[in-house]
Amino acid sequence: MLLEIKDLNVSYKTVNGVASILEDFQLQMQEGQIVSIVGESGSGKSTLGQAVTKLLPMSGIAEGQILLNGTNIVKLREDQMTEQRGTEVFMIFQNPLNSLNPVKRVGSQLIEAINIRNTRKKENLTEELMYEEAVETLKIMRLPDPDEIMKRYPHELSGGQVQRVVISMAIILKPKLLIADEPTTALDVTIQAQVINLLKQLNREYKMSIIFITHDLSLAYVLSDRIIVMYAGRIVESNPSESLIKSPLHPYTDGLLKSVPTDYKTSGTLFSISGSPPSFFDMPVGCRFNLRCPKVFEKCREEEPKLRGRTDGSSVRCWLYE
Hints:
11 helices, alpha/beta
């Protein structure tokens, strides 16, 4: 088992009190598996990625177990976690500029990543070989004129180019687990497709496991083996991608699928889930989706259902299946 998350709870201390953002999160990932985490903004998706990489803000508190190759990340000191980041777990942020040093040229940052890998894996490459590897990696990313890109600062590149530079670092470091937090949000459709294909390539060639965080079910379906749907900090459904798209279990998942624009040109109005996600300071009693659910009944308003596994390998948090 590459990654096993047990009973993970993440909360933040705020001026209004403690907000529980992630509750009772469970996940098991094998080597080479791709899992997508899907949900609306504020569902806890990015918090999960930050918890796994131990990059939560100072106000964040994580409890539970995040076992990466048997090591509980939650219990590690910062100096110990530094040894894990990069070659064991690597995170691509929604804003790729957050991953790069604005006052260093792209080339020096890529070579620094090669140096980190060399030190940890006891390799011995000359500066010339490291430069050549960095340029070759940019070529794999299909970046035009890689030698020129090496000389530039991050702010001199487009969003798509910066994102591909960050993915280049992942190729260089070859982490066992890659976390991609909405890596295609700011990109046009053509570059989106290129990034998705690059992630597939990393998975196929290096057996790299990937957690893909997105609000786009279409991208999740194309890329992943399994999709986990989150709502208000809770997993509401976990299902193999094909099964989830064809036969969604939870009413929230069904609503997300219906919201994907497909035949809107002929049918007119786009479907949308009514209402808004609840505040983390004022959660509804019972099922957290009950205020927006078209299938709500009395028990949904009285008691929150547990996440229950099913014989087909799926799991769902809904009273309809009790």
